[in-house]
Amino acid sequence: MDYLSLILLSCALAMDAFAVSLCKGFSVKRLNLKHYCIVGAYFGGFQALMPVFGYIIGLSFASFVASIDHWIAFILLGFIGIKMIKEAFENEDCDINANQFNFKIMFSLAIATSIDALAVGISFAFLETPLFIAVLFIGFITFVFCILALKIGNKFGVFLKNKAEFLGGAVLIILGVKILIEHLFFNA
Q1: Fewest Cβ atoms nearer than 10 Å: which of 47, 63, 76, 144?
Q2: Are 180 and 45 within 8 A, CB to CB?
Q3: Are the C-beta atoms of residues 136 and 52 closer than 8 Å to each other?
Q4: What is the value of pTM for the model shown?
């Protein structure tokens, strides 16, 4: 996977955490450095960690599915993308716990928003993606997006929440199609 695709993938994966961070920002009257650090560390850290677990899982059976790896990546990315687009059209308000930043709440939100990254990590094993670079991009971009979302949510509200999820889903679908086309038509 080339660097531009990794950056786009990282941005797409960050959109769930971005949407949750918007809600968190909206629910807090006054943000401080602690809020930014907590949100960035939890969401960025888990988004970076989950692909590693997925990669390890993917490596365990990558040799068995080498001939169809591009189809698996396409299906995984497409499924995650469709799920994100579907969620963008659901009319959800911010969670009642949005103004809480304790371990239990942040841990569960970080896990929930990074499950997609686990599935993407599985596809990294099939595509022989450089894991270290991918994890750095995913973690850093999610960290930055969540800090920005916290500030945006605090200043302007959550009107971008559904748009972010839709955009993230569309990017994942496009990347899945790109991977499939490259393997079907441009690999000898």
Answers
A1: 63
A2: no
A3: no
A4: 0.79
Q: How many domains does the chain fold into? A: 1
pLDDT at 80 over 90: no
**Gap between the Cα atoms of 85 and 57, Å rounded:** 26
Q: What share of the chain is helix, strand, coil (3-state, %, to 5)?
A: 80, 0, 20
Q: Answer for the pair 101, 39: CB distance below 8 angstroms, yes or no.
A: yes
What is the C-alpha R_g of the chain?
17
> Residue 72 to residues 68, 100, 176: CA-CA distances in angstroms?
6, 38, 9
Contact 83, 13 (CB under 8 A): no
27-40 mean pLDDT: 90
Q: What's the rounded Cα separation, in Å, for the pair 122 and 51?
A: 7
